[in-house]
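Subject: DUF3369 domain-containing protein

B.,
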Amino acid sequence: MTGAVETTGEIISDDLLFADESTDEAALAALRNPPWLVLIVDDDHEVHAITRVVLGDASFEKRHLRFLSAYSAKQARALLAEHRDIAVILLDVVMETDDAGLTLVRHIRETLGNQQVRIILRTGQPGQAPERAIIATYDINDYKAKSELTAQKLFTATVAALRSYQHITLIERGRLGVEAVMDAADHLFEQASRADFLRALPERMAALLPVAGSVLLCVGAPDGAPDGAPRVLSAASAGGEPLDAPLPDAVMRDVRAALADGRSRWGDRHGVALLRSRSQAPHALCVLADASLPEVEQRLIELFCAKAGTGFDNLHLVERLQEAQVATVHALGKLAEYKDEVTGDHVKRLGRWATAIAHELRARDLFPDELDEEFCGMIGLASVLHDVGKVAIPDAILRKPGRLDAEEMRHMREHAAIGGAILRDAGGDGPRNCLSMGAEIAESHHERFDGGGYPHGLSGDAIPLSGRIVAVADVFDALLHRRPYKKAWEIEEVLDLLRAESGQHFDPRVIDAFLAVLARDGLPLVA
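Prediction pasted inline below.
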């Protein structure tokens, strides 16, 4: 080893201290092939010196050795806490105590939980630490008497330990990588929209990279595009690198080739893997890194892309189901509109108000257990179904130009329970959807906060939140517009009634949110 300097228990090469800082290739080579860390633990300074001389020029897999020195078990513990990637420990048994080395082994395996580092026990007193007993009792990987440890045997034992460490760390990296890919895939599958999915893809991949790098999601150019260059749909960086720089020519060629033939490409500092989907055009995930990606990382990237391709297909199926659900809701809404000529425009306005109120309540951090993004995105469509039960009400009652008598009112009030029953059967027992929320709204939007409503006489928070929101929006819009049995009210009359009924007919929190929405957004939503 050339010109070694010892500082804080470790050996640093003079060549590194005085190297030309402009030598980018040397720095890049060190980044690509970092040295193996070898910890020498021995209270004999001469053992440290001899070990460095014997192994100073050794290398394995084009990676040299970097030595750390500890002269007691206590110093070794400090270095182990500081350096988590030590590959091999050359460990003496007898140091500050007769069993200091053996106690350190137990600390490494049991306290630190470090099962990867390879431990070669070296002892000058083999009789004090018999090999058979030590091998059987302690989790060490080799046992050598210093008297028999020639230069060749030391080299052989060290390289064998490094090979074993490499295999173990690759297996562990693969295991942890698969777990991380599964977690990332689960996160992707939680995305509710195509835009969110495309944005999350490179973000999750960048978070999985072991080194800083950038990830770009690319798709082929549209037919007839003048340059035919792939388009970048989204990008993310694990190290803060700028993402707007043009891709190098070699990377662009590999992206084009991968999109054309469906095969991954692995370059000097980049990789391109394909996302295959039955429902989408091919997409390519381009990873830019500071060094070549190891084979285990390549396999993990391809696994991630395979899971993401499945996510594409799942998202497509979800979108189709959502489209079918929206079509079903609108069809049922049209059915109610056919029976009630005022329903069409009314439900459009009602949906806008209900959505705005839900978002305002969420912004105020009210009802956090109920008001999530899904609720806010669903209530507008579900509110379309609030009066679907009117299909069962005779036209003579539904379109009567005057007030209803007691018997007619009894029949009219049945529409709430009828609508709830129809939609509950259609919505099923699975996760919340527009039909199941529509059932809540249909059945509860005529309940009163003070318990005087129908069909069940519910009060307070026993009334579903969706019903309480739609109740405010429904009464507001119904009073503001002409009906066969009444003229339109003035806006101030309507607002005065809502304020007066806060806490009686309506949930006061919903009224406050509604008034805030109206003050902020004005009357454009009324029309």
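The first strand starts at residue 4 and ends at 7.

T.
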